[in-house]
Amino acid sequence: MAMEVKLFVRDLKLTEKLHDYVENKVSKLDRYINNINEARVDLAHVKSARDANDRYVAQVTIRGKGFILRAEERSDDIVTAIDAALPKIQRRIERYKGKHHIHRGDGVSAADATMEFSEDMDGVADVDTDPEIVRRKHFILTPMDEMEAIEQMELLGHEDFFLFLNAHSGQINVLYKRRDGKYGVIEPEIA
Questions:
Q1: Does residue 86 register a pLDDT over 90?
Q2: How many C-alpha atoms does 116 have within 13 Å on its Cβ side?
Q3: DSSP character for 3?
Q4: 126 has pLDDT over 50
Q5: What number of CA atoms fall less than 13 Å from residue 162's CA on the CB side?
Q6: Given pLDDT bands bounded at 50, 70 and 90, which one contains residue 7?
Q7: Which bin fits 136, alpha (ψ -120 to 50), beta or left (φ > 0)?
């Protein structure tokens, strides 16, 4: 199955040369892992970035059967950001390939238990003074333990938090990274 490369830009002019460059570089990712169905590349120019070196953002997301891997890099040049994001996604692929053989207690591999996201990009806003919801994500919660949640959080490139269904308690938990580099778990209770 051929990998489909989708390219999206925001506040940036997509030239034919840039399009070909991205297409050429990203299409080579299937050398690292065979079952990639789709590669999504988001390129953006963030005018309001605090640091001029963070104005161009390149995010690469690859999806396949049972996995989603993502890498994001920022730079003062879009090509530099792309060139920095690709080795990062390659490292995530290698890490995923090294760990996906670990099986869960119920006989389902961690790769098969990965959550599948479907993104709805429609924003919702009624009045300019209200906060605006610009993105909604829907996903299937698969039971996993805390160590699997940490692994999935790192494979997806989430740096702040990760929502998961705790296999031991049957409750929805939030895994988050603390300032000291360690992890915390929020276990909500209904009053």
A1: yes
A2: 6
A3: P
A4: no
A5: 28
A6: very high
A7: beta
Q: Where are the beta strands (DSSP E) in the chain?
A: 4-10, 36-45, 56-64, 67-75, 117-120, 136-139, 143-144, 161-166, 172-177, 183-186
Q: What is the DSSP letter of 2?
A: P
Contact in structure between 56 and 81 (CB atoms under 8 Å): yes
Q: What is the pLDDT of residue 102?
A: 52
Angle ∠(77,81,85) on CA atoms, nearest 5:
175
Longest dimension (CA), the chain: 57
Question: How far is residue 12 CA from its own chain's centroid?
Answer: 21
What residues does each domain of the chain span?
4-99, 117-186
- Of 36, 41, 40, which is closest to residue 64 (Cα–Cα)? 36
Q: What is the pLDDT of residue 100?
A: 63
Return d(Cα 155, Cα 89) in angstroms, integer.
9
What's this model's pTM, rounded to 2 decimal places? 0.56
CATH assignment of 117-186, given 3.30.950.30, 2.130.10.10, 3.30.505.50, 3.40.250.10?
3.30.505.50
Beta bridge partners of 60: 41, 71
pLDDT surpasses 50 at 139:
yes
CATH number of 4-99: 3.30.160.100
In this model, does residue 73 exceed pLDDT 60?
A: yes
